[in-house]
Amino acid sequence: MDSYHVCRVAVAPIRKEPSDRSEIVSQLLFGDRIEVLEKTEKWCLIKTLHDNYEGWMDYKQLQKISDLQFRDEKAYTYLTPLQLDNTLIANNGTKYYLSPGSILPYFENGFCALGDEKFEVTSEAFTPSKDNFKLNAEQTAKFFENTPYLWGGRTLFGIDCSGFVQTVYRLNGIQLKRDASQQAEQGEIVDFLASAQLGDLAFFDNEDGKITHVGLMLSNDKIIHSAGKVRIDPIDDQGIYNVELGKYTHKLRIIKRFF
Asked: Which residues belong to any copy of the NlpC/P60 domain (predicted)?
């Protein structure tokens, strides 16, 4: 079933099962493209285009688009910038408040479009570039400081560890997969913590050796990550040390470079 859609609300939950009670595994942001794999009356099983993530969502939060619109990469290059006020104004005068890093489809002359509907874009839309990644990564990451941790979250009002680094990278022109374990399979290995640079990603495992956490290195001894909230902590060869708790909270497994 080839059925192409785009997210038509500011943020939409992707759930593990087709039920409002099911856990949220990720979120779609406005302008994210998806493929519908299965559909019931209310629910649809979807696969995201940007990170191939699958889950269930409420069909009403999607807008159908053509095959041509789905594959028109040039139409999805503009994003909302790193600021709080990313307001869209719909034809009827109502407003949408978007999180940074949301896609503005078919952006031109201060307007974007979903199907036949046009929206006025009040913020300065931009096309991310990875050319200045190291220059901008720290500022981008620190913008999300104190954002509360939310399993499956991808916005300023709640973000998880892999959603956080994925968003920082997206705003700087690099596409990462969704989960920490998937992201750990990307990039090049950094042999030693001492060689870590600003923007590298550090991955952490649990007792079973499964990668369950990721953070962004600010230097070779400081990391910013989402744990309780987006916070900056010291890191050494053992892992992340939480000064407030007076103990190590995450055991370091591997460091990867993506730029």
From this structure: 130-259
